[in-house]
């Protein structure tokens, strides 16, 4: 398959590459997985690729093809919790989130939300997500089944929470671990699906459950780990009371063997320099969730200190603490939050860097660099077709753009689901 349109992709160093008249060629590999074969300028590539037998060219004038977005942290069961008002994280969990998640013991209910959630991701141009389910094993079966039907690369896990949680969402220490192992064996590596060991956060798991999670993480090395850390000051005080011997909140996870490659911690706002060094040393990633951090008044991720420490990070919506499924809203909020970080002066994130954090950078942080989130040869062919003229104001702004930064920034600031004309997922046949 050959597409002709403007084309955005990323170099290995993260810088954006742009062809105003581009060519993208894809073909199935031996397993039937559609992959990028060539990407670049139409002028340079068309002679070689359009002459091949069976080549069909789809010409998309005025459109821009870009990598599918990767959401590093989201809660599919919180689709209906978006916009629930509360005074910060802990009241929000108690009054809205836990009561709502209790409904997912019902498989039919979970199926319905999973279907809506995945359609909403695709409508917003998100082709891969690392998502929490709930503590009910059912809720994992629901999202995995629905993602498999759509051919999406999706990573999910059953929440472990055996204390400080109400009836209806609290699991049993041992049973939660047994269910986790059963679900790893049922889903991890099936088609494009992956499993994530998912302790909700340190306060809602006993040391015994965290220890068991760490043991599973050591036995199943290519399974992901996901949790929350250092989001909110009340939460951090609580963790200090519960784990007085730990060096820090992040240190709790390290003590239980939950920091390694493919571990992803949401928020990472109130870290110290030792925590940042530990993230780097353990090849563990941060999922930055700026619309959630603004909604719950949690604080601001510090990009400058993250870059100085050189650990992996990427962007995430954190729906339903987050306010939108749209990657454009998340990138816009990240821009604002980046400025508000602890040393405000003279710092602004570049448009190409924001976009990278939600595509190739997020993929790299998940350990899927070169697999998704980019349109370089060999990548799986998950991509979006954008229509930069989808609203009157966007049409004006993008037509006036003289540089790539201006074009990308117009879309980051003004874009939403209307900008996504098509989302193409490269389902294996
Ligand atoms: N910490 C523990 N659980 C949650 C959750 O569901 N959302 C957010 N934002 N933080 C959490
Ligand atoms: Fe979250």
UniProtKB/TrEMBL annotation:
It comes from the Bacteria. Pfam families: Amidohydro_1. Keywords: Hydrolase, Metal-binding, Zinc. Pathway: Purine metabolism; guanine degradation; xanthine from guanine: step 1/1. One of its GO terms (biological process) is guanine catabolic process. The keyword Transit peptide does not apply. This is Guanine deaminase. It comes from Comamonas terrigena.
